[in-house]
């Protein structure tokens, strides 16, 4: 399926272009250390760009940009935000100078009835997976904020509102974490520690419902999924999945692209929709 749109979403120059219908992704970005340490999740992310058609622009909903209402980023320069502390010095030297996408931001803001933020750069939930998957940093990028207090159905609706962008050369990505109970993390922990039973039970339930396209169950995961509150003490790292599900819509082809666990509790699963 393809769509025609008289807009080049990266630079803002107007031209008529036919775009293929792009898939939607959910990625687990994990710890900032994923950018520099060897792990199955890093190896997967390094191959991600080669698995997909090259987009004209990327719109990414990151767990690390929370706002009371939807906002879309369109700064003059996409600054790399190092929104973490206590990590090795090489992480703070990384940068991802992808061009901003002002026309995409305006289009997305229009679809959402949202504000455009002209100061927000790229947090590590955005730049870290993009650095690995598209290391040339030559695809325009905008972020969209999440509203953690508004829950799953709001984010399904938010994603659905953004769905027309898929036919306009835009790759929509939700970047969060399949499980995210960081209370369990201890310095010096073994990244190869075996997965705990509660993480397996929650992840198996989620995977079954995702592959079945059961949006009603996924919207109510907090009540229905085993150990949901334990795996996500707060919801911000799972809500990007609901954005991706909403953007994909019902009936999309669904594929689990990757599954691995770090430290025994941090699942790094990734999905493609469409």
Structure description:
- The structure is a single chain.
- Helix content is 31%, strand content 20%.
- The mean pLDDT is 93.
- It has a single domain, classed as 3-Layer(aba) Sandwich (Protocatechuate 4,5-dioxygenase, Chain B).
- It has 11 helices and 12 strands.
- With 274 residues, the protein is of the alpha/beta class.
- The longest helix is centred in the C-terminal third of the chain and has 15 residues.
Tell me briefly what this model is.
This protein is α/β, with parallel strands linked by helices. It has 11 helices and 12 strands.
- Examine the secondary-structure arrangement and name the CATH architecture: 3-Layer(aba) Sandwich
Q: What's the order of the H and E elements?
A: EEEHHEEHHEHEHEHHHHHEEEE
Strand content of the residues, in percent?
A: 15-25%
Total beta strand runs = 12
Shape: globular
Largest sheet: 6 strands, mixed
* CATH homologous superfamily grouping: LigB-like
Our measurement of the CA-to-CA distance between the termini, rounded to an integer number of angstroms, reads 11 Å
Strand order of the largest sheet: 7-4-8-3-12-9
* CATH class division: Alpha Beta
Mean pLDDT: 93
Counted up, domains total: 1
